[in-house]
Amino acid sequence: MTEPWLQDACSLVGAFRAREISPVEAVQAVLDAVDADGELNAVCHVDAEKALAAARIADVDRPFGGVPFAVKELEPVEGWPYPRGSRLLEGSTGPFTTVHVERIRDRGGAIPVVQTTSSEFGLVGYTSTKLHGTTRNPWNPALTPGGSSGGTAAAVAGGLVPIGTGTDGGGSIRIPAGYAGLVGIKTSFRTIPFAPFAQIEPLHSTVGCLSRSVRDTARWLDVANGAHPRDPFSLPRVEGFEAGLGSHDLAGLRVAVLPDFGGAVVHPDVVAAIEDAAEALIAAAGMRRIDVDFAVPDMAAVWSGASLPTMWHGMHAYWPQIRELLTDEVAALMARSEAFTIADAAAVDPLRKQLNESFADLFESVDLVLAATNPDDPYAAEGPGPTRVGEVDVEGLGNTGRLTMGMNITGVPAVSVPAGLSPRGMPIGMQIVGPRHSDALLLSVAALFERERPWPLVAPSARPA
Question: Residue 242 in contact with residue 8, Cβ under 8 Å?
Fold first, then answer.
C-alpha cells in the first residue's frame, strides 16, 4: 500500500517536480486509502481507471499538475454519478462537467479521482443521507464533519485526498472546514463561475475548495477564478492570489471581534478560543481592534425565503409521493415550500436589503471581522442539529447559520481557518470576513495567522500509529 500524502497540495507538486514521488503513486495512494477506510464514509464514487491514466501523462509544471483531488457530489462531472445525496436521483449521471472542475483539471493539471458525499441537495449542515449513510469526522468518528461539504472535509482532514471541491450556499464550505480543522473560503460572489447552467436564483451559492493550507486555497483561486460567458454574474479574472500572500500592509487595519457575529449563541469555550486567536492575530499584524454594535436581521428567513421556491420548482411534480425517499429535514423544507405564498416571497427582498445595508454599515466602520465559524463542537454524526449550546436552548441548525448565512446573502467573502482545539480536542474554526472583493486581503491575513499559529494539516487519526 502506498502511504497517503499528508502535507498540503502545493508541497505535493513540489515533490513531483523533485521526483520524490510520482503522480501515479499519489493517485494510487488515494485509491489505497479510500479502499482501506472503513470509518469515514466520505467517498461515494471512485474513478480509478481514468485517474491512473491521467496520472501517467500528468504535466507537473502546471499549478496542481498531477495532484489527485475530490469532487463534491453536488458538482456534476460528465459520466460520474450525480445523485446529489438523494435517493430521489439515484442512478442519475452528470450530463456535463462544471467550469470550476474543468479549470482545476485542465488549467491546473489536477486529477479528479473520487466523488465525496454531501447532505441531501446540500440543504443540511451535517452529512447523513438515506442514499449514502453517515459521513464521520476523522477527529472523532462519533461526530459530524458538518455539511454540506462534509465528505470533502472528512476526506481531506482524514488523509484520503490532499484537496477537494466544496460548495457554499449558507456555510457549506466554512462549517465543515471549521469542524475538521481545514481552510475553507467562501469567495466574493461568483469569483469562480457557477457554470454552465448558472444558478440565477437564489443568489447565494459559491464554489471553491477545502484545503490543508492557505497557499493551497490561494493557488486554487488563481486557477479557477475569472468570468465565463455562461455565468452572467461571474467576475473578471484576478491574478496573483498566491503570489500576493503576505504582500498586504495590515498595520492599522480596523478589526471587529464578534465571536457571535451579532446574533448566534456561541459556547463560552469557542468564544474564549476566538478571543485568544484574535488577540494574537491583531498583535502580530499591528491591526487595531474596534468595538462595534452589530446585530443581524433574521438571516434564516431571508435564506429560506429565497431558497424554498427553487426547491418547489424542482420537486413539486413528485410531491408528496417522494416524501419517504427524502431525509426528514428536506421533507420538512418541501412541506414549507408547499405552503409558501406570494406574500412570503414579497417579504424576502426588503429583508435582504436590510441585511445588505447592515453589512455595508459594518464595513464602513471596520476593515475586517473575526468571528466563530461554528457555535460549538460538532454534534452526533447522524444528526439532528443541536438544540442546545452549553446551557442555552437554540434553534438547531439555524443558530449555526447566523454565523455563516449573511456572507452568502450579501456576497461578501469569508475564510475559515483553524483557531485551536476545544477542551474535547475538536477543531475550532475562526472566520476572517471582509467587504466584497477583499478575498486577497483575507488570504494574506489568514496566511499571517497560519505562520503565527500553525495547525495540524490532518486529523491525528490520519497519521500512522
Answer: no
- State how far the Cα of 25 lies from the Cα of 66, in Å rounded to an integer: 10
How is the chain split into domains, by residue range? 9-462
For the domain spanning 9-462, the CATH number is 3.90.1300.10
Contact 147, 380 (CB under 8 A): no
Q: Which residue matches cell numbers 510520482? A: 22
End-to-end alpha carbon distance in the chain: 15
pLDDT at 150 over 90: yes
Q: What is the C-alpha separation between 398 and 410, in angstroms, rounded?
A: 17
Predicted confidence at residue 313, as pLDDT, reads: 86
Contact 378, 308 (CB under 8 A): no
| Predicted pLDDT of residue 303 | 78
442: cell is 483575507
- Chain segment 270-316, per-residue pLDDT in tens: 999 999 999 999 999 999 999 999 988 777 778 778 788 888 888 88
Contact 440, 241 (CB under 8 A): yes
Distance between CA 440 and CA 88 in Å, rounded? Answer: 40
CA–CA gap between residue 358 and residue 420 (Å, rounded): 30
Q: What is the pTM of this model?
A: 0.97
**422-431 pLDDT per residue, tens:** 999 999 999 9
At 159-201, the pLDDT tens digits run 999 999 999 999 999 999 999 999 999 999 999 999 998 877 7
Cell output for 240 = 496573483
Instruction: Name the band, by pLDDT with cuts 50, 70 and 90, for residue 1.
Output: low
Q: Which residues pair with 431 in a beta bridge?
A: 371, 416
